[in-house]
Every structure is written in C-alpha cells, then in structure tokens.
Amino acid sequence: MTRLFLSLCFLVLISSYSKAQGLHTIKGRTIDTASTTLLSGTSVAILNAKDSTLVKFTRTAENGSFEISGIKNGKFILLVSYPKYADFVDHFTLDSTTQVKDYGKINLTGMAKILSDVIIKGNRTAIKIKGDTTEFDPKAYNIEPNSKVEDLIKQFPGFQVDKDGKITAQGKTVPKVLVDGEEFFGDDPTLVTKNLRADMVESVQLYDKASDQASFTGIDDGEKTKTLNIKLKEDKKNGYFGKVQGGYGTKDFYQGQAMFNKFWGKKKFSAYGILGNNGTVGLGWDDRDKYSGSSGLTMTDDGGMYFSYGGGDDFDSYDGRYNGVGLPVARTGGLHFDNKWNKDKESINTNYKIGSIRVKGSRNSISQNNLASGTQFSTSDEDFDNDMFRQKLDATYEIKIDTTLTMKVSVDGALKKSNTSNHYVTTTNGENEYFLNSSDRTVTNKADDQNFNMNVLLTKKLKKKGRTLSLNLNQSINKNSTEGYLNSENKRRIIETGAIVDSLTNQFKVNDITNNSFKLNTAYTEPLSKTLTVIVNYGLTLMNGKSDRRSFNQSGSGRYDILDTLFSNNFELNQTINQGGAIFNYKKGKTVINFGSKFSGVNFKQDDLYHNRTYIRNFVNYMPQASYQYRFSQQKSLRINYNGNTNQPSLDQLQPVRVNNDPFNVVKGNQDLRPSFRSNVNASYNSYKVLTNQSIWLSGSYSFTSNPIISDVNTDGAGKSTYSYINFSDKMQTNFYLYGQVGRKIKLLDMNIGLNLDANGNSNYNYITTNQGRTLNNTKNYNYGGGLNISKYVEKKYSFYGRFGPTYNMSRVSIGTNSDGWGLSGYFSGNVQLPVKFEISTDGEYQYNGKTQVLNKSFERFIWNASLGKKFFKSENLKFAVTVNDILNQNVGFDRSATNTTIRETRNTTIQRYFMFSVSWDFNKMGGGIKTQK
Questions:
Q1: Residue 616 phi, psi (nearest 5)
Q2: Under the phi-then-psi rule, with left for phi > 0, alpha for psi from -120 to 50, and beta for the rest, what region is 138?
Q3: Which of 374, 453, 787, 854 has a CA positioned 20 to 30 A from the CA of residue 866?
Q4: pTM
C-alpha cells in the first residue's frame, strides 16, 4: 500500500513538472477528403516558426493517426504531406494553457481534384539538395503560356542568363544542358533553353557531371562538368511542338529560326534551322575543335602532348568563334534522334549538325607600354574576313547485356573547312614620336580539318555487392591541312646608328598535322568494409603525331618552290604513357570522404627530321586528390575538395617553332625547364529553407603553384621583345575565388530579392629586361564585386528582373604604375501586358569603369533594347513584334584596359542600332494530362 501511494505521488510530481516545463502533445488523424480513406504513412513534421528548422517528425499509423509528445512552449508550424496530395500547413502557438493540441481529422485533398478546379497558390518545396545535385521544382515558379525553359531558369535563385542565353549558376558557367539525362544536340545549350517549352518540364537538376566511369563506380575521379538536366513530364512525351520565327530590319539585318520536335513513346526527334546576321542566333559552336590552339604542342590530362594546329604564325584553322567583334552571317541546322527499346535495355542517341559562319570587320587599337627605359607608343589596325563551314555527326549506343553487364559505344566525326584573310598594320614610336618599328602584314589561309573519335565503355558488376570492373577504350584521329600566303613589309630602327632597316617577306606556307591516340583505362572497385571502398585504376596511352610545316620563297619564275629551311620544320612525335592510382571512398551516414592519388609516367620522343635531331624526355606526373562531403539534411550540404597536379613545360617553352610573321616578338626556348606543381582547394555550402523560400550558396577556391614557369621578356630600345621561360622557385603564384549569394521571397512585397558578393585575384611573376637592367615584376590583380537582384511576377500584368552592383578592381605591379578603380554594372529585363494582348518587353545592360592612376578617363555604356508585340488567338501562340536594338546607339565597340605595364584602347566593328519587324509562331499538339499553374 505504501509503495502504491509513493508511485502515485511520483506520477503526480512528474505530471506537475511536465506542466511546469510546458511539454505538450500534438495529435490528429489524416483522411482523404473525397473518399474518407485513412492515409497511413503520412509525413507529419513540427517546425520552428522562426527559422523553419525541424523540431519533431513522425509518420501516421495504419488508421491515419499520429501523436507527437514532448513539445515545449513556443510558436510552431505543422506540415502534413502525402504523395499526390496538397500539403496541410498550420501555424500554432503552445503555452501553459494547452496541454494537448488535438487537430482531430485533417482532411487532405488530392492534387488532381484541386488542379481541375482552382489555381493553387502557396509554398512548395521549390528546391531540394541531394548531395551534389540541386533540384528545382517548376511548379513553384511562374510559367507563362508558350514560355521557354530559359524563362523558367531565370527565376531560380543563384541563376543568371545573359542576352545570348549563356547560363551562370551559383557563380559558374553551365556549358552542358541535357534532356532526361541525354544529350540534345550536344554542343549548344541554347537549343534546349530557347526552344523547349517550360510547361513540359517536371524538374530541373543542377550538378557537376562526372565521367561515365565515375558515374558507374560512384567514386569521384575529379572530372566534372557543370550541367543542367531538364526532366520532362511523362504526359508531355507524346505529340509534337515547335517554333517558327523570322524578322527583317534596317541596315539589312535579318534573322530566321525554325524548330520541330516530336515525342512518341520512348522516341524523340528534333530538327532545326537558324540563319541571321544580327549576332543573336546560331553562334554557339561551343564544342570547338579540342585540338585548336595557338601553341605548337598542347598537354593532355594525363601528361602527354599532341601537336595543335596553330603554330603561332596565324596559319590556324578558324574555329567559328564570334565574340561581338565584326559583322557575322550564320547559317546552321541539325537533326536529333534518340530512342529506347527492349524494355529500356537498349538505347541510341544521335545528332547531325551542319552550318557556316562568316565574320567580317576591323579592329583598331592604341597602346602605351611603360618601361624603365622609357615609354613606347603603338598603333595597330586590322581588317579581317573569316569564313567556316562544318559538318558533325555523333551517335551513342548503349546496351544492358544482362543485369550486371553494360556496354556503351560512342562515335563522332567532324569535317571542317575554313578560309581566313587578315591584314595588319602596326607602328611603334618612342617618346617625342621617335620611330622605332613598323609592320604591314597580310595573311591568307585555307584549312581542311578532319576529326574522328570512338569510345567504348564496358561495365561489370561482380557477385560481391560493391565489387565492379570497368574498361574504357578510346581511339581518336585528327588531321589538319592548311595552305596560305604571308606577305609582310617590316621596318626597324638600329638604335646604335639610327639607321632604318627594311625587310620583306613573301612566302607560301603549307602545314600538314596528324595526331593519333589510343587510350585504355580499367578501374576495379573493391568494398573493404561496409563504409570503405577502394577503386584501383590503370591506364595506357599510345600517342603519335606528325607536324610538317613548310615555308617556300618565290623563285625568279614566280613560283613558290624554294624551301626556307629556317622557318620550316618536320617533327614526328611518339610517346607512351602509363598511369595508375588508387582512390579510397568512405561513406557513412551523412558523410562521404574520397582520398587517393594517380601517377603517370611519360616517355616522350620527338624527332626533328629537317635538322636530324632527337629530343627525349621522361617524366612522372603526380595527381593527389581528396574530398569531404557532409549532407546536413535534404536541403543543406557542405563539400570540400583538394586536387594537385604536376605541370610539365610545353613545347613552346622548351623548343618553340620558329615563325616569321612578327619579327618584333620572338620566342626563345629553354631545354632546362623543370615541371611546376599546382595545388587547389575549393569548398561549397548550399542551404535552402522550404517555408521561407530562403537559399544560400557559398563557394570558394584557393590555388598555389610552386616552382612556377614564368616569362622572361627582353625588350630592346627599338621595341623588339624576346620571350623565354624560366623556373622561379623563390615565390609561389597564387589564385583565389570567392562567391556568396543569399536570396529569399519577401511576402509583404511579393518579390524575390537576392544579395551576392564575389571576389577573385591572382599574384604572378615575370622578369622584364631593358637597357636599364633586369627586374622582377610582381603583378597582383584583385577584383571585388557585389550586387542586389530583384524579381517580381504578377500574372497577366507584368514581370521584371534586375541586378545592379558595384565593382572594385586593383592592379598592382612592381614595374610601372598601379591601376585601381571603381565600377558599376547592371542588367534588367521586364515585360508589361497591355489590353488587347499587346505587350512591351525591354532589357538593358549598363557598364561603368571609373578613372584609375593610368586611365585618366572614365568609361560608360548603356545598351538598351525594347520591343512592342501583339499576340493573337486564345493560345497566344502567334506574335508580331517591332524591336529596337541598342536604342541609345552606345554599342560602339570601344574598350579600354590596363595590364602590367601596358595601357590599351581598342575600337572594333560591331552591331549597332537597328529596327526589326518580326513574327513568331509556336505550335504544339501534346499528349493529355492535367494542366498546372502555380
């Protein structure tokens, strides 16, 4: 009896204590509104009202009931979620007056029913963070009729899309866009973002795409590409859609575009054609020839070398690049097809592209070089006419032979022809307009390129869970043939005597370059325990190349048949690369750790056939790596990476190819160069809060290079510079990068606001030698920026987006004058819906660069565009528009820069103000399904 009494007293005391501490119980039961079905397994979460952090979580029992105990006093949010049902959200307060909060029946309504009756407005989980992947839900954003994917991703926090369609996400450029994880025309992301309809998208994923081998093993191999993956809705994969657009304007500017897409079952077919001369369409060409470059030999990832097409003498294959300089004419087209069959065990993806681009224009520049021996002033005028025609075909076939064995075969080839013509006139004077040198040079060139690549990947899952074996084989063949003429007249003052010496060059040049490579890489993964796995890999690369560059002088007969052995060379290159390494992967709970290293031994042999010389280099490259990832929750993650690699000197630094296009800038080799070593550390932190729609993106990197290879420039009094390279062991070269972005929705204003800060900088060294002596120059460049971005959408009324912020640039040099200055930059775009389906659209880009110690003038430019359009039909899919490009006529092609000891002002031919009338028609007939709007 005594024990029973004591027990009752104890229970009373506990109850009194619980009441005093304010511990409460929340309970209820979830039911389908329409069918009164009890919903078991419903997710029930209690969140802090202040910051949306999770307090307690449970799931309902079989009868739909739930009970959560031990909740203290405070303000909270109840979030009840069930698949394919609208969320139930309730704000409530707990205090000493309430011991148990009983919600009773919580009625959940199916999404299908709600969407058929009303437009949903409310909070959604707009962003999910899954390790390296950030997933965006389009239903949480605004989708206008006939809007495109580009219009959708402009609303994502941390994203920027410029006027040309280039995507920047969380401070980094996104070069690749996939559709349902598959390539879609491969090399031009704008073909997806500017043509695919936003209302077809189920979700958008942003991640760093790993190599196929790393994706299979699940272990990071360091090869990453920032990628967007557009996942389509299942009910939108049946039917067709497309777009036709054309326009003509003043100054004979025009543009045209047509695209057709058909989806049926597992099949996708697309065709497009683009033409224009206004610089806004068909100028992507982002998969430029991987072997193009300006040096005679280029390094590969595993430490090998191959001949590049350029030899530093302007006899290079034009790659179709258009960067706003000159007047372009582009015509491109393409076909795409992909399909899955045999229960998705087999698939094929193929693309064909054909196109041409021609760019004509001029470039004029004035520069000032401040040296210890005095100031040199240079003027340069260039006229150019570059034309390229290209065809490219690629195909990927994948088959799942059984549940453990998969084979993937990829083949691509390209044919390219280009014609270039460039005329340069340069003059360099000393102080008081004292003539030093001049050059009048004309270069014409025809090039024919052929590229072929084949890759085979075999992956096998072995009996033990986590044990895998993969084999990757790659064969590539690349050929380049060019021929052209170099005509130049050069004058140079002899400083000692004051005399002026003339030299004439009239040559015919022929280049034939071939590269072949075969690569094998095998990877084996072995689980050492439940949490630790190791991947061991071995790679073999066999490479050979031929580079025959011949220069011919003109004989008395007028034929170019006299070989100039001084400026001709014929090299053969053979090398064998053995690579091996091991990477360990630790994974437990929310933590993932990778660490390990790769080594490659390179046996390099080059024969100089003209001079009967052989160059042999044997070296070892070291590539350590480590990463740490912690996933706090589905909406928050942290990642830290380290990568190191050995950098071998290039052929241009060891043994440059002699060229005679510019006798006032000569490169001299150094056979005693040693490799440098670069270390890089980067980190990123991502966080998103569902109910407040607040996102945080932070990233940064720091790299340092020990024993760097730096330039040693000797400039004489006549303005001739001789470049060589040396190792510099006294100091390290450094680089850093920081980016931060915070965004959230302000409910009071119904507006999204974001704040971003970024900084980057580097410290480099070089020697400068004049008749005053040899001096070490340390160049430090630091760039700081920040800004505010705002966006708002009011359905069927207006929308706008804008970003604006200051910049501060610091350029510090040991030789010359420091150059520090403030700047401002901004961008805005907006749309206003007027009565009778009229609309006004506008965008503008502002740039201001203030005065510096060396630039005594500020620079300001505001490029403003606007259009007035009229939509027709109920679906608003036909649109007529009048557009004004560069209303204020400020795109005059002017630029001013200051680097090291040089100040330069440049003017280029560019596209200026014009008026254009255009018409566009969007058409579609897609499969059925529920139409949704936010």
A1: -125, 130
A2: alpha
A3: 787
A4: 0.78
